Every structure is written in C-alpha cells, then in structure tokens.
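Input.
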Amino acid sequence: MTAAPTSARNPKNDSTTMPGLVAAARTAYGKGSSRKLRKTGQVPAVAYGKGIAATTISVSPKEVLGILKTERGQNNVITMKVEGANAADLLVMIKDYSYHPVTRELEHVDFVQVKLDQEVMVELPLVFTGKPVGLAEGGIIRQVYRTIPIRCLPDKIPVKVEVDIAHLKLGEHVATKDLKLPESVMVRLPEGQTLIAIVTPEKDRSAEEAAAVPGAPGAVAGAAPAAGAAPAAGAKDAKGGAAPAAAAAAPAKDAKKK
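Output.
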C-alpha cells in the first residue's frame, strides 16, 4: 500500500529563531551544593560534547521549561552563553532533564553541544490527519508509533511529521517507506515498519493479548523501534523513572476518529 504524501513541518530554524539561554559556570559540587543552588532559583546542569570537556553550569529552570514548552521542545537548537570562569558561547540541545519525584520541579539538565554541519539523532512526533475510509468499514486506527527516530542536521529538524490517512481502507497501513520527507531527513526504522494501520477490533485485541505474553511473535501493539534506533529522549525523575513531560517512541494506544 502506498500512502498519500507525508509532510514534515520545518519552519526556518536558524540563528534568528534559535532560543537563547544564559548559564553560569559553577565550581561547587555535591548534593549540598546543588540544594543551595536550587534555593537561589537556579538548577545544576552540565554541557558536554565532542569538542568540549564536560562543563558544570547552572541555569534558570523557568527559562529551560519555557524552551521545552515550545513547539520544538527538546529539538530546539539553543545558543548558550556561559558566564564566569569558563566563559564560552555554545550551540547546544537539551539531551536530558530530571524532575523531583514529589514536587515535580526541574532538578537537573544535560546539554549536548551540536554543530550545524554535523547530524544529530532526535525523535519527531508522528501526527495523522483525515478520517480513514476504513472506519466506515468497521475498522479502528492502530497507531504503532507516536514518535519516530530521525537523523538530520540540527537546523533541518522538522517540527513534526504529518501523514494524511483519509484514504486508508480496512487492512491498509502506512509504513516507513511511505513517508515523504526532505532528503536531508532519514528515518531510523526499517522501510517496512508499520506506523499506522486500520485494523478490525478483533484483530487488534488479539495483538494486545499476544503482546502480553513474553516472546509472543506478531504483536503489533508491542512493536519496538528497530535495533540501533535512537532511544527516545525525554525526562526522568530523580530515581530514573519516566516523567510525565517525556515523549516516548513507544507503541501508541488505539484511536478512533470521530
């Protein structure tokens, strides 16, 4: 089945639109120091990359959350100005961040240095539009992936990938090979990987039951990203658990278009 052309929204992402962030170099370490820092309205962070040694810094949690709440979220390329002993101007992205397990306040941020001529691996939201023909035939929408792993240059990262599924009939699907993306964007999933399908409710329930059995084959609902695919970037709490704000490239729940 050949899907309708899929588009990737990619508003201009250059130095005139990149968010800025001011960071301060810090020399004190340890839990006690971090607690004191948070009381001043800052959170500990670290910036690292191939071209720089790990640099301990502090940033404003309000400014970081403001960036995460934008349309691009973690996929923003940020111009960071580090003030203090290790003064520097960096181009970074948010690699990871953590929340307090009880207060849910931002506790720590990891930034990774990027270069505009070197590709990065990120997750993009996969959004479908249109009411599939297959719904009138008794089918339901099975969205296997809510996000997809891609690789491209930092300033070429699309905001999201949209696919029109109005033409899909019962039993038809959209696979990775059906996505029509710019040549500079590569999806890191097998070409035949099903992303969205129109299935019968009975078949869908069978897939969920099979997925509940360890090692069961053919479980559409439990389809995992391809080997070697980039893990979903997102937040973790202080104990390593997934935070509510994190988006995962995990199989999605059913959705019936009304």
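The CA atoms of residues 6 and 163 lie 4 Å apart.
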